[in-house]
């Protein structure tokens, strides 16, 4: 199947925000059911137990609603209000699978949900106003950015690139050189994780497709990752490209 994704249209955070709101109300509904069903039996044990259970489940519902509100406000305002790092972890580790399930159930494609998730993740990362030294930032690229028929393979060492300009590797290598930032090309998730473990960056700017970016952000948490979607005019994993200006914008937002 041909994948002709283009990043000319920026991913919309509102898709993920809307689904997150639906998920929140779904969770509150489940909490209510967990309270309502046993209350009949709890009253037989002790008359105060239904009230105590109601307070407990009410508090859980309040936390869910407050957390959703904080995430929406942080995303909308672009400022770290409260517990942004913790809430980002909750979204990545717990809410994302539920949101994907609800989204696909109502007919939203996984790629659309993941695009929106990446956009929201980026918003949460930048809202923390991180300032990172260039030597602690890593640009991580997929090998498919290099032309398939190029005889010089830059995996492992992008400096092998002869800067012919036929693909975006030239611009990305020059960008890394300009800001004195480490840059690596990985052939897959396993190698990408190995590179991150070896280089131990404080922040990663990663280029990939929706699926790989989503899984990479999940695997790297709590390490902050700013994701940039690649363009795939010839289908997935083949002669892809990326807007180098978007990479530079991401770098400028975090360089300290």
From TrEMBL:
Regions that span the bilayer: 15-35, 55-78, 90-108
Organism in which the protein naturally occurs: Geotalea uraniireducens (strain Rf4)
InterPro entries recorded: DUF116 (IPR002829)
Lineage top rank: taxon: Bacteria
Pfam families: DUF116
UniProt KW keywords: Membrane, Transmembrane, Transmembrane helix
Protein name: DUF116 domain-containing protein
């Amino acid at each position: 199947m041909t994948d002709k994704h283009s990043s000319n249209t920026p991913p919309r955070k509102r898709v993920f925000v809307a689904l997150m709101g639906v998920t929140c109300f779904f969770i509150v509904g489940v909490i209510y059911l967990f309270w309502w069903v046993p209350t009949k039996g709890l009253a037989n044990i002790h008359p105060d137990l239904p009230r105590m259970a109601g307070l407990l489940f009410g508090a859980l519902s309040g936390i869910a609603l407050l957390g959703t509100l904080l995430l929406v406000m942080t995303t909308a305002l672009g400022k770290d209000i409260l517990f942004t790092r913790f809430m980002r972890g909750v979204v990545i580790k717990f809410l994302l699978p539920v949101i994907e399930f609800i989204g696909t159930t109502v007919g939203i494609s996984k790629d659309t949900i993941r695009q929106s998730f990446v956009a929201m993740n980026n918003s949460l990362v930048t809202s923390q106003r991180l300032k990172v030294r260039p030597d602690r930032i890593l640009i991580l690229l997929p090998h498919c950015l290099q032309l398939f028929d190029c005889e010089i393979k830059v995996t492992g060492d992008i400096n092998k690139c002869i800067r012919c300009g036929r693909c975006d590797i030239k611009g990305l290598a020059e960008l890394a050189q300009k800001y004195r930032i480490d840059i690596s090309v990985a052939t897959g998730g396993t190698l990408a994780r190995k590179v991150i473990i070896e280089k131990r960056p404080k922040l990663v700017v990663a280029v990939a497709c929706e699926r790989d970016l989503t899984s990479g952000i999940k695997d790297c948490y709590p390490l902050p990752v700013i994701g940039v979607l690649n363009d795939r005019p010839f289908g997935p994993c083949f002669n892809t490209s990326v807007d180098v200006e978007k990479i530079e914008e991401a770098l400028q937002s975090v360089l300290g």
